[in-house]
Amino acid sequence: MILPCTLALSVLSLTATAYPRAQTPFTAPRTRKLSFELRQSHSTFFDHSSSHPRILFRDEHPATGFVPPISLSTTPMVVSRPASPQAFQAARLRSMRHDQSELLEWDDIPVLAPDLTDRNTILELAKMTGNAYAQPGHSNWYDLDPEWNTSFPIGWEPDDDGFRGHVFANADNSTVVLSIKGTSLWSMNGPTAKKDKLNDNLLFSCCCARVDWSWTWEKVCDCWAGGMKCDNTCLSKSLVEDSLFYSVGVNLYNNLTYIYPDADIWLVGHSLGGAIASLLGATFAVPTVAFEAPGERLAATRLHLPQSPTLVPVTHIYHNADPIPLGTCTGIRSLCAKGGYAMETHCHLGKSIVYDAVSQLGLSVSLANHRIAVLIKKVLAEDWDPPEAREEIACVDCYKWEFGEYFPQAQHTPTLLANSSFHAS
Questions:
Q1: What is the structure's pLDDT at 358?
Q2: DSSP letters along 276-307, please?
Q3: Can you tell me where the transmembrane regions are (predicted)?
């Protein structure tokens, strides 16, 4: 199934199905377990006859015969969503164009969310996330059950360089899990590596990936204003127009709500995929689990996402032997910088569950521990209860930088592209 993107690089289009309205008073459902199977693979490709990315969904066909599916524990949650997608868009535009906030009406919506006090649920969600990197049958594919191993995810062909992952659903399609792939390292020369690196440096650097002042460092936008100064409006425009994965993610989510209009949707991802999942979770107010993601709170501010009156339903899960979510892989001598990655942020949206892998498991802080395999096999496989989820209080990103309006406003006012669209309900 091929669904065209209604947006290319603009990120402001939200369909009416994105924000369902509460029709009846909320009654909390009982906590229960749901069984999931793989339904679709998704990826993004670029048709050379068009300048616009296209999203592909491929139906996956399970094996014949009965195979017990995997079960995930769930819990009720109430999320706050804007009363309409039009109001959400208007608030974003007002903030982006005039640096002014707009009062939004928010609805409390009951949803079913993963129970993140259950160790097995976290472990299986991590495996779903890890499989976004892999082809079934390969050594890095995690067995969820034999039924899923018969599928072949698309998006791994040599010429494909886009957004990848899987779609899982339970039997009655009432709950859907969308997984999103993270960064493929530039050193591995994978087909997605170039765009992964661009998005990493746009989303997680303080100012256009300007780690030092030499000509050898590859910046990703032109917002540096000299010294430790950076133009705010320019940064916002760069993320709106150049941050491909968030834009594609918005379209992917809208397409998913078209396929599953009545489902509770969960988002999961690792590293860059976790940060994109978190930004989409904040955009659409859906339960999101981000594994080992860099700090994305600064990117959410630069994308001008309207702030919910309640905490966004995003939970970050990582351990303290991984420098990426800790925001410590910084400086010109760091391995990140040597690889051309400016991973300078560490503040996260929502809440975080942080495992103490250093003192409890004896792991040392190392970039090698950022691999999701380490999280799955060495941390989550341990028989211990998840730590309490906590909000990151008093966290500040890029405190050495000064952010203001240093360039002529007219040159950097974000504008909607010609193919952007606002869908009325």
A1: 96
A2: HHHHHHHHHT--EEEESPPP-HHHHHHTTPPP
A3: none
Q: Is the dihedral of CA 274, 277, 281, 283 positive or negative?
A: positive
Helices (runs of H) and strands (runs of E) counted in the chain? 12, 14
> Under a CB-based contact definition with an 8 Å cutoff, are residues 260 and 311 in contact?
no
Q: Which residues contact 21 (CB under 8 A, 6 or more apart)?
A: 83, 107, 109
- Residues whose CB falls within 8 Å of the CB of residue 402, separated by 6 or more in sequence, listed in order: 228, 229, 230
CB 296 within 8 A of CB 344: no
Q: Contact 16/152 with Cβ under 8 angstroms? A: no
Is residue 420 scored above 50 in pLDDT? no
Contact 132, 270 (CB under 8 A): yes
Residue 315's SS3 state is: strand
- d(CA 262, CA 99) in angstroms, rounded, equals 35
DSSP 413: -
* CA–CA dist 305, 286 (Å, integer): 14
Paired sense of beta strands 53-59 and 33-46, if any: antiparallel
List, by residue number, the catalytic residues: 271
What residue type is 355 in one-letter code? Y
Q: Lowest-pLDDT range, 13-22, 111-120, 211-220, 248-257?
A: 13-22
* Eight-state DSSP code of residue 18: G
Q: Can you tell me whether residue 391 is helix, strand or coil?
A: strand
- Structure token digits, residue 144: 């969820």
pTM over 0.85: no
| CA 329/CA 323 separation, integer angstroms | 5
Give the start-to-end residue ranges of the domains of the chain.
2-409
Q: Which two tokens stand for residue 46?
A: 């670029």
What torsion, rounded to 10 degrees, do the Cα atoms 302, 304, 306, 310 define?
0
Q: If you search the block for the tokens 């050379």, which residue do you land on?
A: 48
DSSP state of 37: E
pLDDT-derived band at 83 (thresholds 50, 70, 90) equals confident
pLDDT, one tens digit per residue, over 206-235 is 999 887 655 456 778 889 898 899 998 888
Strands 390-391, 175-180: parallel, antiparallel or unpaired by DSSP?
unpaired
Stretch 45-55: mean pLDDT: 52
Q: Token pair 């535009």 is at which residue?
A: 93
CA distance 40 to 169: 9
How far apart are the two ends of the chain, measured CA to CA in Å? 25
- Cα R_g (the chain), whole angstroms: 20
